[in-house]
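Translate sequence into structure tokens.
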Amino acid sequence: MRRAEENSGQILVVDDNEANRSLAQSALEDEGYDVVLASGGLDGIAAFERARPDCILLDVRMPDLDGFTVCERIRALPHGSETPVLFLTAARDLDTFDRALRVGGDDFLPKPIRPTELVVRVQNALKLRRLSVELREQYRELKQQRDAAQRVQLLKDRLSAFVVHDLKNPVNTMDLHAQVLLRDEGLSPDARESVVYIRSAARQLTRLILNLLDMSKADEGRLLAQRSEVDLRTLIDEVLLEIEMNARSRRIELCTAIEVQSVHVDRDLFRRTLTNLVENAIRYSPSDTVVTVTATRRSGGTEVRVSDSGKGIAPEMREKVFDAFAQVEPVGDGHAASNRGLGLTFCKLAIEAHAGQIWVEDGSPGAVFCMRLPDVS
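Result follows.
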């Protein structure tokens, strides 16, 4: 009863996509709100004049009038200036954000719609509407600070995107020229080994670039696993062959125990995940030890494990190791097992995109990184 009282109010949802309208309607009605739907800009303006809603969810891109124009027109209508407007958009660029603020938008929600976040934002907008004038002024100051912080984040996202895309071409060129050199039969053994190291470093950079792109997709809810049937043994052999030189230079032996013929995964995402985990195991293994990759059937899925013989990770630190730039203290007096970069963070996002799980166990000695991939029905 209390929830219904707190969440009383009428919400106008303006979106030309029927699925988005239905999702928003379901999420809001479950919380006790009355929902009015409009399938386009003109329809939305008419619905506002007719219903005088307490809050508006407004899509940016619509075929008749875009959301910015609709917002400007509503703001000019009676009661339009005091009604909260929350923009919904799949675009995460600075220009869209700035224009939404200029036309009087109160909030900015990315698509795809996340029901829980949507409800919280609507609740906050309606609470603000009920505040006194003094509190509204304080809120406006806080909102300006929040908008400035969000603008900085969008600028950072834009810069990251530029850097990542600009890195791809020179890295690909470096790898291509290394391949050309390897075809030279007159290349000395020492020079050939150096070129192999160059190729290995280029492939590492390529993976890092792709990981950054995929992490940006995950932040926006767009990281989707494109599954197909993959020969697991072949994939693991390819990964180990790619990083064999790195293992050999550290006197690490790579072993496998594969009991599963195939898995349904996104081949590229899973390959990069496995490569990151094996490289991480090599990095923290003492010389003259073994890194092992195993794959076994478990109830309802496949479990892939990467184990090393390092110092391991303390139980209380095993979840933190997947946080971006985490520094995790070692067990005993060995090297710290850390995620100074984003490799393990990417692994977690990639496995979650498969609706799977990833965790760390004690290897006694060492750490065991475990991935469970559910069967696809």
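Note: The two ends are 40 Å apart (CA to CA).
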